[in-house]
Write a structure and sequence with these properties.
The complex is a heterodimer of chains A (384) and B (148). Chain A is of the alpha/beta class. Helix content of chain A is 36%, strand content 17%. In chain A, strand 8 and strand 9 form a beta hairpin. In chain A, helix 4 crosses helix 15 and helix 8 packs across helix 14. The chains are: A alpha/beta (384), B mainly beta (148). Chains A and B meet through helix 5, helix 6 and helix 7 of A and strand 6, strand 7 and strand 8 of B.
């Protein structure tokens, strides 16, 4: 077991489909206000990890434009071309190394206003085979996965629609979410544009402009910065094969493995009992039961029951995406880090109408790649 | 305040070409002869279609090409109501995208399935490859699959 690492600051933007500012200014304002919230300046940060992507930024070595905005001038800085929870993972590891006491992790993109998200998603597909053939993309993979789950476990389209309504209602109560659907209902979900059956437009996450950032610190540094640190008690990371045709879309082996690593590190024996809420990086509503079950939060194949009983609601046995999750806002590169920020807000009792009562231990999940090929899991705990 | 919000945007475009590797070149050459080629891992004996040069699971270099059968089972599918091109989602006449396990292969191959009504399609049906009459050495030589 390594050192203790705390989250001493966290913040997200108010996400929107068009935030009418540049990426650089969005990031600058977020980081400045985060530092100000926790009473530090850039001088207090030893190392900086960004999550962005040359494709989403439309330029190469894209972090060079961001470095001055986050206060990394003349400092140690690196970029991960993946979801933001990876940036938090790298920051955690850097502090574990003993070389650094504090780190900023930030993820951002303008996936609402500057490009079409499905285009960026299609750039992830194998350029030599799947991409030119045009059949297999993030949407159609999610549909294939949803269909298998539904067929195997008798999960009906209405069950999936009901789960979607749960997330959309949570998003309506989340001041940071981009999507606001007036009175979402099972019928409005099922009546939305059909994409790849069983998926409709309403099941798809809200690709938006946005950013999220966290400040991590060693135990000694955390004591200097805050009197209510949140502790990272477990992390896990796993990468599945790229090839869709080799994967078991239901088992989600890489997510399962990331979850098991994190539970082992955190000493969690029964995730169902010991975790109070989970924020999952779902690009599609249909991923929610599959991911939650792979993480052992619910019994395998219990989606129908969970929806019927409201077990994953804010006031349920195991609240999942009380923020509304990416269905409310999914800025590519930031979505997984937003999950971590939302978990922190829950643990500190700041989640407003979506607050899970007495939340003490939370799980944040980030993913990247087609069909959640790569997965990161964080377990965060409040001490008192 | 000036610049409080910004409405101006300038376009960015990229153009790329991608050279396929040895395994896909061999696969494409096979399609020209109306053959479906896979590649076998000497360690785990799995046959991957289309072929690739490394088995990720065993970390072995692969070079044993094998021809697989042109018939197989529909393992999974989605009825597509759209196409996505350049990130644009466009409505389309419903069509079936299938994941097919060819006899002799261990991985699933994605392909369009025709000849079965979109509301009748189900997993487990036997399907066979349909070729373009004149093949030219491209992925589209293997036109689609239909019930066997």
């Amino acid at each position: 077991m390594g050192k203790r690492v705390a989250i001493v600051g966290y913040k997200q933007t108010k996400h929107s489909f068009d935030n009418l500012v540049s990426r650089e200014r969005m990031v600058y304002e977020l980081v400045k206000s985060l530092y100000s919230d926790i009473g530090i300046t850039k001088d207090a940060i030893d190392t900086f990890i960004l999550a962005s992507n040359d494709f989403t930024d439309g330029r190469t070595i894209s972090e060079v434009y961001i470095v001055p905005r986050i206060g990394a001038y003349m400092k140690d800085e690196s970029k991960v071309e993946s979801d933001g929870l990876n940036a938090a993972l790298y920051a955690y590891m850097r502090i574990q190394s003993g070389l650094y006491d504090t780190a900023l992790a930030i993820g951002f993109s303008m996936s609402g206003s500057e490009f079409r998200a499905p285009m960026i998603n299609s750039y992830v597909m194998d350029p030599a085979y799947e991409r030119p053939r045009g059949l297999i993309n993030f949407h159609s993979i999610a549909a294939l996965q949803a269909r298998v789950y539904m067929e195997k476990y008798g999960f009906k389209e209405r069950d999936l629609a009901k789960l979607t309504v749960k997330d959309l209602k949570n998003a309506n109560n989340n001041p940071y979410a981009a999507r606001r659907e007036q009175k979402p209902t099972v019928d409005s979900v099922l009546g939305s544009r059909p994409l790849y059956a069983p998926l409709h437009e309403a099941h798809v996450s809200a690709y938006a402009d946005g950013a999220a950032a966290v400040v991590l610190a060693s135990e000694e540094a955390a004591k200097r910065i805050t009197d209510k640190p949140l502790w990272i008690t477990g992390v896990g990371h796993s990468m599945d094969t790229y090839y869709l045709g080799d994967r078991d879309l239901l088992r989600m082996d890489s997510l399962r493995s990331a979850g098991e690593q994190a539970y082992r590190m955190a000493g969690i024996k029964s995730p169902k009992r010991e975790i109070d809420l989970a924020e999952l990086h779902t690009n599609f509503a249909s991923e929610e039961p599959v991911f939650a079950e792979a993480l052992g939060l619910f019994k395998e194949g219990s989606g129908k029951e969970v929806v019927a009983n409201g077990d994953s609601n804010v006031d349920g046995k195991m609240p999942v995406n009380p923020s509304g999750g990416p269905l409310g806002a999914n800025p590519i590169n930031a979505a997984g880090l937003i999950r971590l920020v939302d978990v922190c807000a829950q643990l500190n009792g700041e989640a407003g109408k979506n607050q899970v009562k007495g939340a003490k231990t939370g799980l944040a999940h980030g993913q990247d790649g087609p069909g959640a090929q790569q997965n990161v899991v964080f377990i965060v705990r409040r001490e008192k | 305040m000036p610049g409080e919000t910004i409405k101006s945007m300038v376009p960015i475009t990229f153009l790329y070409r991608n050279r396929v590797g040895q395994a896909l070149e061999t696969y494409i050459d096979g399609l020209k002869d109306k053959k479906i080629l896979g590649i076998k891992c000497p360690a785990c004996d799995k046959v991957y279609v289309p072929p690739r040069t490394v088995c990720g699971c065993c970390h072995k270099k692969l070079d044993t090409y094998v021809e697989v059968e042109q018939q197989g089972t529909l393992e999974n599918f989605t009825v597509a109501h759209v196409t996505i091109e350049g990130g644009e989602i466009k409505d389309a006449e419903p069509y079936v995208i299938g994941m097919i396990k060819l006899k002799g292969a261990d991985s699933l191959l994605s392909a369009v399935v025709k000849g079965v009504a979109v509301d009748k399609v189900k997993t487990g049906i036997r399907v066979k490859a349909v070729w373009k009459e004149e093949t030219q050495g491209s992925y589209s030589d293997l036109a689609y699959f239909e019930p066997a």
